Amino acid sequence: MNPARRTTQAATTALVLATAGALLSTAAPAASAATTCTSPVYKRQFFANTAFSGTPKRTDCDAAIDSNWGAKAPATGLPKDNFGVRWTVTRDFGSGGPFTFTAAAQDGIRVYLDGKIKVNVWKNVTSTAKKTVNLTIPSGKHTLRIDYASWTGNANVNFAYTPRTSASVDKVKPLAPTGADINFLPQTTHPVGIVSWAPNKEMDLAGYRVYRRIEGSSSWTEAGTTTGLRFTTNQRSTGDDYYYEVRAYDRAGNESAGSADQGPVPTYDMTPPTRPVVTAEGVEAANNLSWAASEGAKTYRVFRQAEDEHLFTEIAETTATSYSDTSARYGNPYEYKVVAADAAGNTAASAVVSSTRSITPPLNVTATTPSWGVVITWTEPPGSSTAGYSVYRSRTSPVVPDSDTLVDCRDRKVSTDAAGNTIRRCTDYDADRGVAHHYVLNRVNTEGRRSVESSEITATRPGDEKAPPPVTNLTADPLEYGVELDWDDSTATDLDHYEVWEYRSGYSPDFLDEVPAGTSEFVVGPEAANGEEKTYFVVPADIWGNYAQPTGSYWDSPVTSVTVTELDLRPTTLPEDTAPCSVLTYTALGYAGGMYIECADSVATEAAGINVYRWDRATSTYVRVTDIPLAPTATSYTDRTMPAGTTVYYLLSVVAPDGSETFSNVDSSVSLPSGA
């Protein structure tokens, strides 16, 4: 038989801490003849029946309800079957809140809270029965009673109660700490206070937050957290008096109201004012300084250092938040700093700023980037007498104005905005595309004084400065009326068109025509098929105007060329050119052979007429195309029987009165294919 579990002082204390949380320190005394158990330790009573009647066979203290007696009696003098055990405890639940009761027993268990049953598993079972109940316990002290009955067989029992600490469930604030007090420690610089308080009774306590406020203020600021019961003050030495209060917080994040205020804790004023943040502007009359008021400052001292000086010199003391230095030399750079001082003599110096007396620079400088350049606009300073402006550009920042960065500022315009301000504009057409450029401006007044530079702006023209890659697979096929060029579509995503050029040895390339993007073929013509060797270039151009360009006989970027020998459709025989006439041919309306006739004056009075001949390649002969001779005074002729899509060669004959003929020079005429 297993005896009833014995609970030592140390074990009882450890179990109480495990039950109530690490922030509690309640200890339970060992059981005695007149058994008294200190909360939260249970008083346990053993009965030799399951009705809990008569005098208990044994009474002791139990830190936790967790026993397994098996099939044996729970204690000497008790039967192994049909016995009962009762645990009772009255404890302070603090602010109360949501709890979980967990019970497990073989055989029966009943749990009472303030006499009201909360768990009822009361029957003889052959295995352990379990039950969990969630409930809300009110604040303050409450009594728990747990009755256990073992009828037959094995006996075991377990019960625990724990707070529910989820933030979504627990909305109950802890009780405010009590017993708050403060003690002072002497220090050489400022007093230090130690705030202390009594332990909180919350079972789910997480710790304490200490707050402070300045005397006369209602705004509290967190000074620190602790899981102990004391806190040493660490406030800044500002000359203010501070009050403290303590608030408890639980594991769900709920925070209690504050304890009674403790204090005041005085401090000496050893905190300087906030550091002034100074801005400087050089105008024609002075260097103007300004700053926001520093917290705690009573006066401000202004210091200046010239470019050729090694020390700062105080030039003014003021209670204002601005100062104009009219004694600074015009055009000379100066450095300034402002020192804020409070009534206790604490000081704080600003950062050093620079300024130079100058005329007001251009204002509100902006830049836009249309495709053709960078358009810069600015506002002319009001009341100014401006002689001119200069604009400077650089790829690096900051811009250093010099002759190398001066912009050829064109398209200058002047306008007035709705507020009556004068707006000026110029366009920089020379900035490279796709590159970030930085700009500054300065102004020259009518007295020749030049301003400092304006604020710097950055602008990037859209696009790039790189020509598209050369075309690929360029071919040339000779035709009877010209040359057909063909190539692969360019891979450039910003392609605009192609340019077609013709090159003849010893000459610069000649531009022929443009071909729109999306088209990758071009016919050079109409052009006489006379067997010449020709070289052609196809050059892609993008929407930004980038393309390879000829420089003499060379190109400034790689290009693609193709060389072809034209078809040779010239006559194989040429009559002797003895006629007093010459022929100059052309293509009329793209399909008819037209020609101009120029003859000596004698033809009009001495010849019988003029005949027109066309070379016939099929018969290798000249075929007359005029049924009857033209009048000897004729100056032109159109051959409407000229075949389409080929090169035709013509000559004239002057018919004498006796019918004999003399022949002119030969000239070609080119016709396009039908429908071209």
TrEMBL record:
Q: Where is this region: Disordered?
A: 447-472
Organism, as annotated: Streptomyces sp. NBC_00093
Q: What molecular function terms (GO) are annotated for this protein?
A: hydrolase activity, acting on glycosyl bonds
The alphabetized UniProt keywords are:
Carbohydrate metabolism, Glycosidase, Hydrolase, Polysaccharide degradation, Signal
Describe the location of the PA14 domain by residue ranges.
37-177
InterPro entries referenced in this protein's UniProt entry, alphabetically: FN3_dom, FN3_sf, Ig-like_fold, PA14/GLEYA, PA14_dom
Q: What is this protein's name?
A: PA14 domain-containing protein
Q: Which SMART domains match?
A: PA14
Q: Does the keyword Transmembrane helix apply?
A: no
According to the record, the signal peptide region is: 1-33
**Entry's Pfam families?**
PA14
Give residue ranges for domain Fibronectin type-III. Answer: 272-363
Question: Which parts form a coiled-coil structure per UniProt?
Answer: none
Q: Which Gene Ontology BP terms does the record give?
A: polysaccharide catabolic process
Q: Tell whether Signal is among the UniProt keywords.
A: yes
